[in-house]
Amino acid sequence: MATTELPPERHAMGVSMKRKEDPRLIQGRGRFLDDIVLPNMLFLALVHSPYPHARIVKIDKTAALASPGVKAVLTGEDLVAAGLGWIPTFHGYDKQMVLAVGKALFQYQEVAGVVATSREAAFDAVELVEVEYEPLEPVVDPFDAMSDTTLVREDRENKTNHIYHWEVGKREETDAALAGAEVHIKERVYFQRCHPAPLETCGSISDMNPATGRLTLYLTSQAPHAHRTVVSLVTGIPEDKIHVISPDIGGGFGNKVPVYPGYVVGTVASVVLGVPVKWVETRTENLTTTGFARDYHMDVEIGATREGQVTALKVKTVADHGAFDAAADPTKYPAGLFGICTGSYDFPIAFTELDAYFTNKAPGGVAYRCSFRVTEASYAIERGMDLLARELAMDPADLRLKNFVKKEQFPYPSPLGFVYDSGDYHMTLQKALDKIGYPELRRLQAEKRARGELMGIGISTFTEVVGAGPSKHFDIMGIKMFDSAEIRIHPTGSGIVRTGTRHQGQGHETTWAQIVAEELGLDPQNILVEEGDTDTAPYGLGTYASRSTPVAGAAIALASRRIREKAKKIAAHLMEAAEDDVEWVDYKFQLKGVPGKVVTMKEIAFAAYTNPVPGSEPGLEATFYYDPPNLTFPYGAYIAVVEIDRDTGETHVKRFLAIDDCGTVINPMIVEGQIHGGLTEGYAIAFMQEIGYDSSGNHLNTNFTDYLIPTALETPKWETDSTCTPSPHHPIGAKGVGESPNVGSPAAFVNAVMDALSPLGVKNIDMPLTREKVWRAIRESKA
Ligand code: CDP
Q1: 222 is catalytic
Q2: CA 695 to CA 737: how far, in whole Å?
């Protein structure tokens, strides 16, 4: 057993310290947008374009305004007059129309808003808004967009569909290494456009109080502070006059990071009418207009020796961004953290480049359970390694073991600029191979193949990069990506912790309380966790991209330690001892060398308010703004085992094992829940989901009968386990985990299916691997 491999009871927080009450779950308060009803509240419904690309000739509001209950109808022209026709997109490279002005640029684009006394009245009147369109030729394929024959964005200075070019690494050296490689593979793999599809859609209540001039915004927001700042910058309303409350928002998965037209139109309506206005998306609106994910066409090239040592990597990507460049990426990273595409492997040289294009499709490019394009990068390299193994006729596990970054190489500077913090890839893959019985599975596969049956084994050993981020590199619209915690301990030893993050079911109520409890020796049941209210929480950039634990989790630990420093002074005062004679032992302060002489944190808390140290400040609270020195690099080894029905093309996932390493685990039960959820999403992406458009630009997946969500029936049984290589720079050694299963699993599934089909000569099928696609591949291979 390698030294870093610890059994769970040694590396889980709390458990390690014999705090038997951990881990367990603390329940949230459960106040959703739907539960919030305000006096005189009106309802907003939006009018959508039926055309993917069309000139708007005329909008006639007359019939809608005459409809019962209707209070206002707003168009793009009205918003332009109010100075709110356009809003900046998150990373600031582009701007987005709130309601279509002049042209509609994608099917379902928002064209007008109707405000009425009930949701039903608003939807009825939507039908009465008469819009005259002149349809135009749409650009649907990013490869067609390259010719600029049809221009998507006439409003831009640059008359081209090309948005940006981004590259990192050494182009010439990589090309030379690839040209000279003994073995060389090249394949285009497509990570399809998909959607986070949270079961609870996006929504808002805008409440402008005409008496106070204060705007309260209830928003389904993963980043309430960032949203408050954006609203202030766009509207000119001072930030103190804006109160953003993100109630329990249901799922988020990156979908609730951007600013959407509904929020803006609702706010304008509330300002104009002086009453609260509520907007809640329909399922179709969510799938057709809000942030999609992925849509990367990636040419992966790997060079290697005949013995299977990798020598160079090149990935060239064409990205489809839709009609507005609304990707939610940090400013300096237009292609997110795609530079992680060298993965877990020690490439001596690498180069990656990307070109992004406008098309007549919905905007987005959100990090769907993903750290800014890490999922696409992991898919590219993990598919590439399997294709190389096949070219070399080498076992894919052996190829990976041969090329992994070795544990003594950490901190490891990757050729594309990251410095990986810690890892032991050999140990983790070996554990997965042992646990699943890999040699036995390969024997079984050989037997089945001899009988003509299609069985496949797929491996994915991904490395992630999460915890955005260090302020020297990471900002969103200029705001640095630190995070914060404020902790108050009350006189009786209970307390409250507030952070700049906003969970969406990740269980921060439990894990944040655990960190405070662990650092201060208090009962986690009596630590209240509060997030999502900009009037009370300290400033932070929110919850997405598995950044909460690496950034806010660190802030909580360090704010707790500030409290412990003060508590030590109080302990010395209570013991009538010098501070230097007091030490922290087993969750209490003890007089050095006198085990019986102790003071508990509860006693200290009481003293902080009743018997403070003379001449010092009473009370027991602290705030910490944490700027991480580096990102964290969680990783995993996933193995999928599948069987395919030759006659129907149906894939059965027989086994799926996920070994994850996210450093110190705060709560094993929550981490396991995160893994199960993410694997289920990864399964759906691999086999069921795609946001597709036909050649005329019509959206093909507008509801849950076309865009499939896995139920318990389809979902495979997950086997999970872990290894632990703590992050050396994080105060408690924790790395993020929430997105790992979504990042790592699609390649494992696809590699398994391609392994099963390898006797038929099938090398690649793009996701989703539907029955029809697999069946066609089998049939064509026979032909
Ligand atoms: O940013 P987000 O909360 O989505 O992701 P995360 O930081 O990966 O955390 C997801 C959940 O897993 C949180 O409740 C974390 O505190 C918990 N977690 C944990 O218990 N141990 C870790 N090493 C990482 C996360």
Answers
A1: yes
A2: 38
Question: How large is the greatest C-alpha to C-alpha distance in the chain, in angstroms?
Answer: 90
Rounded alpha-carbon distances, angstroms, from residue 126 to 45, 49, 63, 699:
7, 12, 10, 20
pLDDT at position 405, please? 98
Task: Please compute Rg for the chain using Cα positions.
Answer: 27
Compute the distance from residue 471 Cα to the ligand 1 centre, in Å: 21
* Among 464, 549, 724, residue to substitute to test ligand 1 (most atoms within 8 Å of Cβ): 549
Sheet with 635-644, strands from edge to edge, namely 454-460, 635-644, 651-661, 719-722
- Using CA atoms, how far residue 47 sits from 119, 200, 203, in Å, is 13, 21, 16
Contact between 428 and 661 (Cβ < 8 Å): yes
Instruction: Report residue 255 as tokens.
Output: 């979908």
Give the phi and the psi of residue 179 in degrees, each rounded to 5.
-65, -35
Atom index in ligand 1 nearest the CA of residue 734 equals: 23
Q: Tell me how far apart the alpha carbons of residues 99 and 110 are, in angstroms, rounded to a whole number.
A: 5
Question: In whole angstroms, what is the distance from residue 726 CA to residue 734 CA?
Answer: 6
What value does the mean pLDDT of the chain take? 94
Tell which atom from ligand 1 comes closest to the C-alpha of 549.
7
Candidate list 107, 109, 222, 506, residue with the active-site label:
222
The three-state DSSP-derived secondary structure of 400-430 is HHHHECCHHHCCEECCCCCEECCCCHHHHHH
In angstroms, the CA 544 to CA 471 distance is 17
Q: In the structure encoding, which two tokens stand for residue 321, read together?
A: 């961004």
pLDDT at residue number 30: 63
Instruction: Tell me which DSSP letter residue 9 carries.
Output: H
pLDDT of 5:
43
The per-residue pLDDT for 9 is: 41
Backbone angles phi, psi at 564, to 5 degrees: -65, -35
Helix (H, G, I), strand (E, B) or coil at 644: strand
Q: Whose CA is nearest to atom 2 of ligand 1?
A: 546
The distance in angstroms from the start CA to the end CA of the chain is 50
SS3 sequence, 212-224? Answer: CCEEEEEECCCCH
Q: What's this model's pTM, rounded to 2 decimal places?
A: 0.95
Give the integer Cα–Cα distance in Å for 643 and 248: 40
Q: Is the peptide bond before 69 cis (omega within 30 degrees of 0)?
A: no
Is 722 close to ligand 1, i.e. is its CB under 6 Å away? no
Between the CA of 503 and the centroid of ligand 1 the distance, in Å, is 10
Ligand 1 within 6 A of 742 CB?
no
Give yes or no: 370 in active site. yes
How far is it, in rounded angstroms, from Cα 664 to Cα 722?
10
**How far apart (Å, rounded) are the C-alpha atoms in residues 769 and 190?**
12
Q: How far is the CA of 211 from the centre of ligand 1 (A)?
A: 42
From 194, 202, 370, 724, the catalytic residue: 370
- Beta carbons of 742 and 678 less than 8 angstroms apart: yes
- Residue 179 has a pLDDT of 98
Give the model's pLDDT for residue 327. 86
For ligand 1, atom 17: residue with the closest CA: 671
Whether the predicted pLDDT of 16 surpasses 50: no
User: 56: Cβ–Cβ under 8 A, 6 or more apart, which residues?
Assistant: 76, 100, 101, 102, 103, 104, 111, 131, 132, 133
The whole-number pLDDT of residue 268 equals 96
Q: Is the pLDDT of residue 165 over 70?
A: yes
Provide the 10 A C-beta neighbour count for residue 410.
17
Secondary structure class of 132 (helix, strand, coil): strand
Q: Which of 674, 675, 724 to mutate to test the pocket of ligand 1 (most atoms within 8 A of CB)?
A: 674
C-alpha 508 – ligand 1 centre gap (Å): 8
**pLDDT attached to residue 11:** 43
